[in-house]
Specification:
- The chain is α+β, with helices and mostly antiparallel strands.
- Strands 4-3-5 form a 3-stranded mixed sheet, with no helix packed on it.
- The longest helix has 15 residues.
- The chain starts with a helix and ends with a helix.
- Homodimer.
Length: about 150
């Protein structure tokens, strides 16, 4: 789906949910949608300053908080970075595979992993309020480059 189509879908969801999709939130959404992989808030700030010269770190963090709350992006906790989510119209389980060599982040949506994790939490009397499942390793491309060296 193209960025304009994603933006239109996000605008519709915000309208349905009764939340304001401000120009700054739109800009950050568009910047995130243009990234392939995880991006830090400060990288986004540098790009946002081209559109909004007076933008400061709180500007980006407030926009990212909004995008997180709406499910438009995910936080990659171990990298302190953010990842655009193509599946933002629906709530979905998420697991991340993070390549330690090239930085690629692969988003998985395995309900069985999510269910097993939630079941284990229940068995231990634990109520999950926030969840992030991340695994670090090497992607297929980096593995094949290493094998070819």
């Amino acid at each position: 789906m193209s960025i304009p189509q994603q933006l239109k879908r996000a605008e519709q969801l915000c309208e349905q949910r009764g939340v304001r999709f401000t120009p700054t939130r739109r800009h950050v959404f568009t910047l995130m949608a243009g990234h392939k992989g995880a991006v830090s808030a400060y990288e986004l700030l540098d790009q946002l300053k081209e559109l909004e010269p007076s933008a400061k770190p709180p500007t980006v963090y407030r926009a990212l908080d909004f995008l997180l709350a709406q499910g438009f992006v995910h936080k990659v906790e171990s990298l302190n970075a953010f990842l655009f989510c193509d599946h933002f119209a629906e709530h979905h389980p998420m697991q991340l595979l993070i390549c330690t060599r090239c930085g690629e982040v692969i988003e998985l949506h395995d309900k069985a992993i999510n269910h097993a994790f939630e079941h284990q939490a229940e068995l231990h009397g634990f109520a999950i309020t926030s969840q992030s499942i991340e695994a670090h390793g090497q992607c297929r491309r980096c593995q094949s480059e290493m094998a070819g060296s």
